Amino acid sequence: MAVIGKIRKHSVLLIVVIGVALAAFVLGDFATGNRRQQTFYVGNVSGQDITITDFNRKFEENLEATRRQTQNERIPQEEISRIRENTWNQLIQELIMNKEYENLGIVITPEELFDMVQGPNPHFAIIQNFTNPETGQYDRELVVRYLQNLDQMPQVNKDQWMVFERFLKEDRLRTKYQNLIIKGYYIPTAFAKLSYEEKNDKVSGELVGVRYSTVADSLIKLTDKDYKAYYDRNKVSFERQESRDIEYVVFDVVPSQRDMDAAERLVKGLMQEFAATENIAGFVNVNSDQRYDSTWFGRTDVPVVMEKDLFEAEIGSVHGPYFDNGAYQIARLVDVTFRPDSMRASHILIAYEGSMRSEAKRTKDEAKAKADSILSVIRRTPSKMGDLAKTLSDDPSAAQNNGDLDWFRDGQMVPQFNQFVLDNKSGTIGMVETDFGYHVIQVTGKKDPAKKIRAAIITYQVTPSTLTYQEVFANASRFATESKSRERFDATIESMGLSKRIGNALRTTTNTIAGMQNARQVVRWAFDNKTKVDDVSTIFDLDNMYVIATLTKIQEKGIPPLDEVKEMIEPQVKNLKKGEYLVERMKPYASDLGQLATAFNTEVSNITSVTFESRNLAGFGNEPIALGELFALRPAAHSKPFAGSNSAFVVKMTDITKSAERSNYDAIRNELTSTFDQQIKNNVAYRAIEKASKIEDNRLIFF
């Protein structure tokens, strides 16, 4: 209702904005001859299209799953963006992997699916959802009974079972695919031995290192040839994604002092009627932006500004107005009592299909029967609460806390659960039903009672009025009128005393820009083919703000030309030249480390027991070339001067301690195999295929 009210308040302004936007859209199509080719494909993966219909179907499925899990119909915009991104990734993975399965002949037959659900070795998800509370073991009869009753269940239950069944198939296909790769991997004994030696052979030696930072830049002359040589060798590392840079100004629509005064007068005008009404909850629900809350509050539960008034007031008295968190509030003390501030309990949750945040497949009757069985066991033997909670509870935290919820504040738990613990003394065991399912509860502790109040609070969030919107829009329009070019954009910012903001490296999937929660309009404008560098946008009407932007940089996907990265690679090119310079200067002294150290005003450093797998040299950081040179030497031999990452070196091996020979290398082989297995199970194979796939992303057209 609050949203509809705001729309009505600003209806005239809204009609103007929509009219201008619609006219611009229609005239734009005439002017361009509608050159943009219409597409119904959100993307394409190696020739396989993702239609907008398929994408939206999957997105709605994921959105609905989130609503069920959170029990919240209103999903924040940020979460919706995340779900949309996850949907895209899911569809990409499905297309890529289904093609892989087809090429390899990996399938799930009806017989195999039946075996996964009802066979002697069912899928782990079946075992998890169909466990007998008496035995703690998987019960096939529960599965059979559930499937027999499925036709009589609501459609939502049938849909959930289909999703669950699809999960079983996808998980088994993925397992088969991963096993094919894992079983094809073999570590020869020679490789296992080499890995063992790289970890355990230890070398000691000496070195002289001269850091590049000791060479003045004036001694180094860089040529275009030097830059090009480095660029050509490292070209792949410069590859980048498509992006845009913008500068923008924001005109925030915030309540004016006029709006604040009007809001204060409004809530003051309610105080007399609020004090007289007998229907307190109804009065609050009609006049407040937040519904009546009958919770019992402790001193720390109410806003600081009203704590003293309410906890020392008489029942029925009205106080305020208070201003807190952008809203005016008035409060009426409804009742006073003494209740425990904190309580403690253990529980076992038995969820059923359709209960809050539940993925269980049992019916409500089956859940109650299971909870009754557990209650009987706990009443006979209370000491079993922890063990049964760990194995049977549908509360995920029970695996770590054995069902012990520790101390919780009065009102922290759902009402039925909270009331049971409040009404019963420590040691009481019982069962209640909540939106989450059936809870077998054991009360384990209660703190001394403390003063609590029940307060009715009317909250009026101060929002900008239509006049305020019009004034801010007028300022934004003036800026837009005077900023038809990049130069005028900067000049107008200065003349109007505004703050310029910068949004760099925007991607086609960017959803938020500093100061803008829902920035998709701005992003789509920045990536539009008709938008050029230095163009200035029209006014974007976003959530409680108007935004005007200018495009400052276009970065296309691919490897940039040398000129664009020249400044960035200059330090590395200098180091290469400094390395060459030092190597030549070090050659006359290379046979004697002492003379070399003296000549370059440094010292001989000792290297003690380093392995080939070492990453760093003490005092010099990451120098893999130096480690390689050291291990390539024989005892008492020294290297020629060479250039490392940040220093030029001469190294000398003084001793090598070989690792002890092993009778077999099975343990090393198993360790390497286990590491590989884990990488495969972490989807490394899919990521490699995804990187090699040609993926066309058209989401920018639709979202």
Secondary structure blueprint with pairings:
Layout: H1 2-9, H2 11-32, E1 41-45, E2 48-51, H3 52-70, H4 77-104, H5 110-118, H6 124-129, H7 140-148, H8 155-183, H9 189-200, E3 202-211, H10 224-233, E4 243-252, H11 257-276, H12 280-287, H13 304-311, E5 318-324, E6 327-340, E7 342-350, H14 364-380, H15 385-392, H16 398-401, E8 404-409, H17 415-423, E9 429-434, E10 437-446, E11 449-461, H18 466-482, H19 486-496, E12 501-506, H20 520-527, E13 540-542, E14 545-555, H21 562-586, H22 593-599, E15 605-610, H23 624-631, E16 642-643, E17 647-657, H24 666-681, H25 684-692, E18 695-697, H26 699-702
Antiparallel strand pairs: 1-2, 1-18, 3-15, 3-17, 4-12, 4-14, 5-6, 6-11, 7-8, 7-10, 9-10, 13-14, 16-17
Helix pairs in contact: 3-4, 8-24, 9-24, 10-21
Could you explain how this protein is built, in words?
The protein has 703 residues and is α+β, with helices and mostly antiparallel strands. Helix content is 47%, strand content 19%. The chain contains 26 helices and 18 strands. Strands 15-3-17-16 form a four-stranded antiparallel β-sheet, with helices on both faces. Strands 12-4-14-13 form a four-stranded antiparallel β-sheet. Helix 10 crosses helix 21. The longest helix is centred in the first third of the chain and has 29 residues, at 155-183. The radius of gyration is 35 Å and the shape is globular. It starts with a helix and ends with a helix. 23% of the residues are buried. The model is unreliable at 1-37 (pLDDT under 50).
